[in-house]
Amino acid sequence: MINSSVNDYFILEGFSDQPELERTLFTVILISYLLTLVGNTIIILISSIDPKLKTPMYFFLTHLSLVDICFTTSIVPQLLWNLKGPAKTITAVGCAVQLYVSLTLGSTECILLAVMAFDRYAAVCKPLHYVSVMNPQLCQALAGISWLSGIGNALIQGTVTLWLPRCGHLWLHHFFCEVPSMIKLACVDIHANEIQLFVASLVLLLLPLALILTSYGYIVKAVIRIKSAQAWRRALGTCGSHLMVVSLFYGSITAIYIQPNSSYAHTHGKFISLFYTVMTPTLNPLIYTLRNKEVKGALSRLLNRDSGVCKRSRAHDDSGFMTRGS
After folding, report:
1. Burial class, 195, CB count within 10 angstroms (exposed 0-12 / middle 13-18 / buried 19+)
2. Which InterPro entries has this protein been placed in (predicted)?
3. Which residue in 10, 186, 172 sits closest to 95, CA to CA?
4. How many secondary structure helices (H) and strands (E) does the chain include?
5. N or C: which end of the chain has fewer CB within 10 A?
6. Which residues contact 265 (CB under 8 A, 6 or more apart)?
């Protein structure tokens, strides 16, 4: 058997079977990518600058925005290159890097969303003890666990996947190097690898999802006890953005990783992957800014401060000019 390491490239089929769709996808994905970069950078910027956003929720949101920027950057530039030009190849090294980086960041996001749900549970159900429960040391530890879990999963799954013998098979029926599509290139029995992928998906997808649902179950229970419309509105304002992000991300990624051999995943897999790799990171900052008064207020303060600085600078320049003229 000839391992694929002797080959220096892979062929990414992507959407080449629908050439009329590639032009449209190029424009949509390019716009989405630019919005992802701008939107998530703004969230990181205002969360770091504005003193009113120095809370655990925005600490974790900053990490989520950083994950989204890096996640899309590991995939989209290569995708745009393949959509625009006739070449649909990626180097073996580039494929390995893309596999490790995207797997690390995707796994990190799964854990991070569960951590953010726990933060919302503490804010709603333990409001008097929130500051002591979500202390800076615990927040940093939870963020570190999220990143280390993602790195550990990528090192295990990525390495096992890349070591599979492929007997010269180079044609990847996907638009980026992802584990479910990579293991299908193997020329040996991959049943054990599929079981490993399923177990990893249980741990990194369904377990965090169960923790998220449990946290929101306690939140709903606490709000029902209060029996107040204002409490419902406050809880929805606190948790609504996170719930929408969780629904978008988990709703798409579970279809690929829990049942990778299903007919639905096989037929619509590339479009589902396109949703959670491109569209979800674009929508996340829009969801958090449009539905969150604190973020909108911080953004307004930042813009007003910048405009005030510009006005003072122009006034200083004008006064200096008048002084020189006199």
Report:
1. exposed
2. GPCR_Rhodpsn (IPR000276), GPCR_Rhodpsn_7TM (IPR017452), Olfact_rcpt (IPR000725)
3. 10
4. 13, 3
5. C
6. 180, 255, 256, 259, 272
Q: Residue 302, Cβ neighbours under 10 Å: how many?
A: 15
Alpha carbons 107 and 143: distance in angstroms, whole number: 13
Question: Which phi and psi (to 5°) does residue 91 adopt?
Answer: -65, 155
Share of the chain above pLDDT 90, in %: 35
pLDDT digits (tens, 9 = 90+) for 170-187: 888 888 998 888 888 888
What predicted TM-score, i.e. pTM, was given to this entire model?
A: 0.84
Structure tokens, 128: 């008097």
The model's pLDDT over 231-260, given as tens digits with 9 standing for 90+, comes to: 677 667 668 788 888 888 888 887 777 765
* Contacting residues for 108 by C-beta, under 8 A, at least 6 apart: 67, 146, 147, 149, 150, 151
d(CA 56, CA 54): 7
* Mean of per-residue pLDDT scores for the chain: 83
The token duo for 40 is 């998530």
Dihedral (CA of 134, 135, 139, 141) sign:
negative
DSSP string for residues in 230-276: HHHHHHHHHHHHHHHHHHHHHHHHHHHHTSTTSHHHHHHHHHHHHII
Tally the residues of the chain.
326
